[in-house]
Amino acid sequence: MSDATSAETSARKCPVIAIDGPAASGKGTLSRRLAAELGLAHLDTGSLYRAVALLLLRAGSDPGDGVAAASEAMTLTPGKVADLSKDPALRNDATAAAASRVSAISAVREALLDFQREFAEQPPALADGTPAKGAVLDGRDIGTVICPDAEAKLFVTASTEVRAQRRLNELQGRGVPAIYENVLEEMKDRDARDSQREVSPLVPAADAFLLDTSALDADQALHAALTFIRTRPAFKDL
Ligand code: DC
């Protein structure tokens, strides 16, 4: 098994876009839209940590139990992740909080490393069956650890207040009662855990394009990202 902290030479044949950033920065929407625009396969790597967390919660295990968490992580397959992604519980706050704890366990990150690199090396076909022209992976450590040789790297941010408001809107849109102050506090806690943990903390790669979406809507963020990506030789003709 590979060392989760090492940057290895990859066997990739098609280009990869690495998108990192904190919760509710807009990176998920941006990644999906970039994938659709450029004909790339998309992997939301947060869903892997959420899947491990949900499996642990359902098994009655503690999300901080490294042995139990790593063994759940080792059982993940693309099919299992696709099934869990349809489960509304994957997106709830309890799963998010457990995922944040699970993601600080180095054995879990190690177990999920190959899954993510395999996706980048051999992206699955698109929903309409056409072969993907490459891959876009979004998460916290894609440009720093998973694909340090990605052809384009973006670090997507927005102010904590803007991100908390976006999360509040999303929760209320799903009919979940929520209070702004509580959402803001949870956002700050999660940011602190994600950026201060010892293994693969959330930090921009040195060569990442920084995209602050605080004052941008989804179309403007897509435009700014595409403008940058098209400056990269691997994406000039896509
Ligand atoms: O992006 P998200 O909220 O779905 O991520 C869930 C948790 O997983 C979050 O606390 C950060 C963590 N995560 C990570 O550590 N590394 C990734 N590549 C993706 C997510």
What does this structure look like?
The chain is α/β, with parallel strands linked by helices and 238 residues long. It has one domain: 3-Layer(aba) Sandwich (Rossmann fold), CATH 3.40.50.300. 49% of the residues lie in helices and 10% in strands. The protein has 10 helices and 5 strands, in the order E-H-E-H-H-H-H-H-E-H-E-H-H-E-H. A 5-stranded parallel β-sheet has the order 2-3-1-4-5, with helices on both faces. Helix 2 crosses helix 5 and helix 8 packs across helix 9. The two termini are 34 Å apart. The site of 2'-deoxycytidine-5'-monophosphate has 14 residues, from helix 2, helix 5 and helix 9. 2'-deoxycytidine-5'-monophosphate (DC) binds next to helix 2, helix 5 and helix 9.
**From N to C, what is the helix and strand string?**
EHEHHHHHEHEHHEH
Alpha plus pi helix count: 10
Please state the second-level CATH architecture. Answer: 3-Layer(aba) Sandwich
Number of domains: 1
Query: What is the helical fraction, as a range of percent?
Result: 40-55%
Summarize this, please?
The protein is of the alpha/beta class and 238 residues long.
